[in-house]
């Protein structure tokens, strides 16, 4: 039975050299053409067996008889969790190359990739890149010879960096060793030190990939008659929509009918009007009548309305009902939701599943998930959470943004958008922690408010019935309805109303200047000689504040101390 090329994902942190390593394989220089040196979109490279033999003389030298027809490499943006390209039963990738800069080690995005590789049980090899940046490094033959023949101080720096990296891998649950020290590749992750710029270790990296594919993937690589694939992206070129995809099993030809899964409901069924296949070692496509897995394709379809990134497709041969059931399993298996939680959106099924995986690991619950921009229905769902749990009145958009053309009213809803999952989650958790503190603070404060007002006697608008005059909030917060005392602890009045720039307000924060209305007093007689007013608090409220003082600001603590001193002058045992 024929076997296909292994699909190899090349992943890792931004600027650690993923595309540069692929350039070494394909002898091109794409990196310089990328915006900011960062891969913009997933691209694939078809790497035929003839090129493998040419780039990796170790295969012939080692007497390895390769049966694989080559590799299909997927270059992923480092700022997205695209290692999670999915197919039924696991990752689309048969193998992964995790590229790590030897001097920078495991960055947050590297850790994110490790989490996903572990979750998907994807076998991987580490390309420990940029060894030539170690001061004094000398290139000597094979990478093993290079390492062993370095000067003592250079070798020491290399070994320290390696041990540090291995320690972090161990924390993530992976045992690892230099590739030539590994006896059992099922138990240890192989580390291949290399340099994309000097091309050291690149041949060895290919050799390890060949060995792993040959030894462990043969069953997985057997081709069936069933054409199966995954949509990567819907691209518009010269006014025509092309479906860019990976065919990972079987063969597909012009005129075949395919079904593409939708996120919910009926699949999209269409005839293939034409197909283009990626050329070996190139980013160019050529028109073909038939293509065999594994390969990168552009499909021209008769019906492409509603096609979404990351969705599976199958060739239809009088089996549409079976395909529908399979799609339902595939999509619902990827999307597990909770009874409560936040709303999440992403640009593809793979991205969405990656996001859900990482949110789950952080114990963040999700009640609704979807593909595409953030729209009105998402905002409505998030607003429902305002009454249930304000911490869940949140929408997270990974690689998608709010559709402003819809005129969204997002008041009360917090939206987190971005193309770096770990950053989105970090920001969300930080916001939730602050929000939780606010909620606890509001509960604690109840009707009591720590408040210090400086009287601005030059702004006397009315002397009595009620007295209306200017104040500045010197600390804490003033609210309608609170009782005020003076500097001697004598009761003054209850705040009847507050105004800022002739507009009525219910409260005002520290630093605000406003007019306050106090009934039942004569300003000239009662407050002319006073400089400050304070919010009155009871002994019990004081104890509550003291118990939760970490929720109070420095200024609020200072005001609380002043109120305590005022109260204790009148009653020594107050608040004790």
Précis, in short:
Helix content is 30%, strand content 30%. It is an alpha+beta fold and 576 residues long. β27 and β28 form a beta hairpin.
SSE layout and pairing:
Layout: E1 7-12, H1 18-26, E2 43-48, H2 49-55, H3 57-61, E3 70-75, E4 86-87, E5 90-91, E6 95-101, H4 108-120, E7 124-129, H5 143-148, H6 152-171, E8 176-178, E9 189-193, H7 202-216, E10 228-237, E11 240-249, E12 251-253, E13 257-260, E14 268-278, E15 285-288, E16 290-292, E17 295-301, E18 312-315, H8 320-334, E19 342-346, H9 349-361, E20 366-371, H10 376-388, E21 394-398, E22 414-418, H11 421-445, E23 451-462, E24 467-479, E25 483-486, E26 491-494, E27 497-500, E28 503-505, E29 507-509, E30 513-518, H12 523-527, E31 532-535, H13 539-547, H14 554-570
Parallel strand pairs: 1-3, 1-6, 6-7, 7-9, 8-9, 19-20, 19-21, 21-22
Antiparallel strand pairs: 2-3, 4-5, 10-11, 10-18, 11-17, 12-16, 13-14, 13-18, 14-15, 14-17, 23-24, 23-31, 24-29, 24-30, 25-26, 25-31, 27-28, 27-30
